[in-house]
Amino acid sequence: MAKAMKGGAVSESAPIYYEEMSKVAGKENDKQSITLIATDDAYNFGDYITLRSRTGHKPQVLTDRGAIISERMAEMMDAKVGDTITVTDSSGTERKVRVDGITEMHIGHFMFMTSGGYKHVFGEQYQSNAYMVRLKNHETSNVESRSAKLIKLDGAKGIVQNTTSKKQVATIVDLPDQIMEVLILVAELLAVVILYNLMNLNVSERIRELPTIKVLDGLGVLVYRRLKTVDMLGTLKSVE
Questions:
Q1: Are 87 and 95 in contact (CB under 8 A)?
Q2: Backbone angles phi, psi at 85, to 5 degrees
Q3: Which of 20, 40, 86, 239 is the most buried (most CB within 10 A)?
Q4: Using an 8 Å Cβ cutoff, are 40 and 126 in contact?
Q5: Alpha helix segments (H runs only) across the chain
């Protein structure tokens, strides 16, 4: 496994401890999944995951005192820096963790620790069980192709790609634009209908006010058509 993390398509990699934890919280008071990532190389951790505050983008530094949690997780648990939160590990044991910082993350619940912080909270010696990997080619097709190859390696249980999170963010960001496009289209159609009806009313009033049209007969029809054409052009100009 370690050999596959070096050279070739891999730009750089780092061993980490990865665990899925949980917490019963939120508006529905349901079970929320929390991803724990612990590292013994806090200095270079920022090469893989950016830890910073949302306001002012102030860097959040990993220490052995506690954990840095994601902004969404902090909101879910109504936690602030300096608070102590309780989470449940994969064995069902509750663990108390001090909130050492809050990082800007809008998707998922994450908790980041140093190896020293992990030992303090879990009372166990830190031991990595996963790798963070950066590929030389960041295109989605290449990431999916490499992931398919890595999952076949002995000892590989699963792979987490950030491309999935990126797609979720892109969908959330694009959705309001799509809604606005539909609203604009509906508004334009409504404007055309209203202006067309007003045009017909205007022409009808003109016919009533021009008694000579009754005498002109066929010429009156021609005048009516010309008036209607002019009003229609005015309607289209107004929509533009």
A1: yes
A2: -110, 160
A3: 40
A4: yes
A5: 71-77, 115-122, 140-150, 162-209, 212-216, 218-239
β pairing state of 110-114 and 30-39: parallel
Long-range contacts of 165-169 (CB under 8 A, 24+ apart): 165/107, 165/108, 168/107, 169/106, 169/107
Q: Is 7 left (phi over 0), alpha (psi -120 to 50) or beta?
A: left
Q: Which amino acid is at 104?
A: E
* 87-116 average pLDDT score: 91
The contacts found for 127-130 with CB under 8 angstroms, 24 or more apart, are: 127/17, 128/15, 128/16, 128/17, 128/40, 129/17, 129/18, 129/19, 130/15, 130/16, 130/17, 130/18
Element (H, E) at 135: strand 130-135
pTM of the model: 0.66
For range 112-118, the mean pLDDT: 94
In tens, the pLDDT along 44-101 reads: 898 888 999 988 889 999 999 899 999 989 998 999 999 999 999 988 999 999 999 9
Residue labelled with tokens 């912080």: 117
Q: Please state which of the ranges 35-44, 52-61, 127-136, 197-206 shows the lowest mean pLDDT.
A: 197-206
| Residue 19 backbone class (left: φ over 0; alpha: ψ -120 to 50; beta: rest) | beta
> Per the structure block, which two tokens stand in for 114?
């140093």
Nearest-angstrom CA–CA distance, 171 and 177: 10
User: What contacts 200, CB < 8 A, 6 or more positions away?
Assistant: none
